[in-house]
């Protein structure tokens, strides 16, 4: 190849390269410093990218390690994603007279389908605290954990005023305008509630018709001409609906509280409007006043179902409370259809639950997955992985929230310092049944003789009968430490 051909070939070679690569080559040839800077820049970029990946991995791990939660250990002391502590709540409103806080969303893939649309919230109101009128775009089911108050509900063209107290359960339909006050001089008014948003799944909003200090009325979003026409009032007169309150939660005088309480009743009483039928009636219902469905020296359980409250039936929900004597436990049980959202309202202890997972021949565990055709996945060598269960366990105390999915066997154990009280909101409770797995009402006692022989063997059948029949108490039992001391409950409830 002569010199002209070589030059032409080099020209074509350069023309096929990008201008950037040519410029870089020229720059590097001229001075080593830009090349060094380029190398350092690339190293820093890789370092920051590595740090970003590391931080992203840390964030994923902090958010329950959802993708790999079953692979790293055979039990979960933190209980996630089924257990939530105080750190999982966020302030919605807070003043020196009270606070309203909301639990993070049930956004894990294991919970999203059953309770992802629901939110747990807690209200703490100081003595004589008043809560500004507002409405939620959510149905609200609340339980009065402590104290007493007056609750005024504006719905269906009328006003109803209710006296509520500790142990009461009440349903407030979405869109009802509500205001309330703590009527006690010294005790706080504390409420646990479950909200089911009706506009956006898993998200709800609060709407204030009347504004105030740091509080905007939703009427402010409308134009002046629309408001003047809608209220048939002049612009300067409309200033009155902006309100003079001191925030979402503020303190009223004793005289104002007395005036608010004057017309309240247990059944609802108040202003003009068309009456509502028995089916549409809303009123507080006392859980402790319900006849316990289970009761012994180790504990008792009260439930309000859709049979007693039509609004709960419409929501396919039930509300119950389990009071477990100190040191005692609830027999392992599961719900056939309902997912239980449990909130600890008194005491401490722990819960345990069995969750499905798979174990391979090496003993590693992972969540059980299914193929598109519903068959379980097979291992890398085509061997089917054996079925197993992972223990989910967490220490619980007042304010803890626990989710018990349908079909998952679980138990609560009370601590030795005092009784454990757990309020349970049963989501999807239509045709639900509680199945107890140990004790006098254990469903396993219904196994017939041929089945026992098949699953336990001829020699193991008698031993199995003794084990299944050994526990004579039902539902509430002596706890592990009581059993170690020789049994016996503490009947100081």
Task: Write structural notes for this entry.
This protein has 493 residues and is an alpha+beta fold. The chain is 23% helix and 33% strand. The protein is built from 10 helices and 29 strands. The longest helix is centred in the first third of the chain and has 31 residues, at 32-62.
Q: What are the defining features of this structure?
A:
7-stranded antiparallel beta sheet, disordered N terminus, 23% helix, disordered C terminus, 493 residues
Quick structural overview:
This protein is of the alpha+beta class.
Could you describe the largest sheet, including whether it forms a barrel?
Answer: 7 strands, antiparallel
Name the beta content range: 25-35%
Strand order of the largest sheet: 2-25-21-27-18-17-16
| N- to C-terminal distance | 104 Å
Give the total of beta strands.
Answer: 29
Count of DSSP-assigned helices? 10
What class do helices, strands and sheet pairing give? Answer: alpha+beta
The radius of gyration over CA amounts to 31 Å
Helical content, roughly?
10-25%
Low-confidence stretches at least 5 residues in length (pLDDT < 50)? 2-33, 35-40, 42-76, 358-365, 370-376, 487-493
Mean pLDDT level: 81
Global geometry: elongated
